[in-house]
Amino acid sequence: MISTIVLAAGGTGGHIFPAEAVATALTLKGYKVIFLTDKVGRKFDRLPSSVQIMVLPMHRRKNSFAGMAKFGWGVLRSMYHVYRGFKVMKPSIVVGFGGYPAFPPVAVAQRLKIPTILHEQNAVLGQVNRILSKKVQHLALSFDHTQFVNTKAPVTVTGTPVRDAFYEFRKTDYAVFDSKEKIHVLITGGSQGAKVFSTVIPKALTKLPESLRNRLSIIHQCPKCDVEDLTTAYQEAGVQAEVVDFIENMAEQISTAHLVIARSGASTLAELEIIGRPVILVPFPGAKDDHQWVNAQLIQQAEAGWCVRQHEFTSDYLAHQLETLINDPQLLYDAAINMKALGRTTSTEHIINLIETELNKDR
After folding, report:
1. What is the sign, positive or negative, of the torsion defined by CA atoms of 303, 304, 306, 310?
2. What is the fold of 4-160+346-360?
3. Strand, helix or coil at 309?
4. How far is residue 339 CA from its own chain's centroid?
5. How far apart are CA 74 and CA 56, in angstroms?
6. Helix, strand, coil proportions of the chain in percent (round to 5)?
7. What does the alpha-carbon distance between residue 313 and residue 241 come to, in Å, rounded to a whole number?
8. What is the pTM of this model?
9. Beta carbons of 136 and 151 less than 8 angstroms apart
10. pLDDT over threshold 80, residue 11
């Protein structure tokens, strides 16, 4: 009999992308996979057609009374839908990848005595995973020494799964440049963009010597509302740049980059680690428990990149940093090597092994 595996994730691409990687691998092994998420998570969908998707009636959590009431009602409705759905689906195991939409499926599974596994992408255990980890069968982590882990369940550091395309570009070596070659810079604020990059980066480039500006070739992913103005800003700065609101071939773009400027979400870091590219990290200051700063610190400690608080990410800071790195390419090359050394190439297989080990307990 084919086992049915439910994967649950939502909220941001950082939770969705690892779940999608595992879902794809599970379908290739012949399992029936059902993916539970919210409307936001549905937008990131790159799942195989064989994966059944259930969208939960969840709402974003807001701090106002009305916002919290709406959020709470969404959780209750979702738990009811999941309970009814599980009676039909009869899942053998439920795997949560974080985000509030993962709470109802895992919580209901635990209530129904269905085995559960959690995966945490960040260096700080997320609030949902903190609540659910007390009754989980296994907890998988992306980082050693993840903060706020408090469970009696077995804990394994698996790393963060990424899509197959990123593994394909792992063999692409870092392209060392000389004093005349173009320097390719990739700028991405994660799945939802970062407006601070749109404001600071063009200003910083105007402060570079013209000889350096002429060598830059930039791909900048930004919020859709910023594309037109940002394109104009780069033109006025005299810098060759392509501005887009979404990058379809992210793995290829990372592989051709000499430097990346990004937020420090777990999926972004995992993708950089697999391909091995140096990065300037500007953690999102609103991240819960400041987890993006903790993520970024681990990259800086490994000498694989540089991290800076958003309020310190000024045009003067960035201009100085870019000029320093471009004039000393060895710094970038060494960081690229250190970044690739962090890459865990078996994360997906490791999580699937945990799933199959749990499934085999009942046989």
Report:
1. negative
2. Rossmann fold (3.40.50)
3. coil
4. 16
5. 8
6. 50, 15, 35
7. 20
8. 0.91
9. yes
10. no
